[in-house]
Amino acid sequence: MIVDNNRAEARTAKNLIIWGLFALASLATVLTYNVLWLETNYFTWLPWLGFGSLILGIIVLIFTSLNRWSVTIVVLGLLVGQWWYVKSLIVLVFMACCGFAP
Question: Is the pTM value of this prediction over 0.85?
Answer without folding.
Answer: no
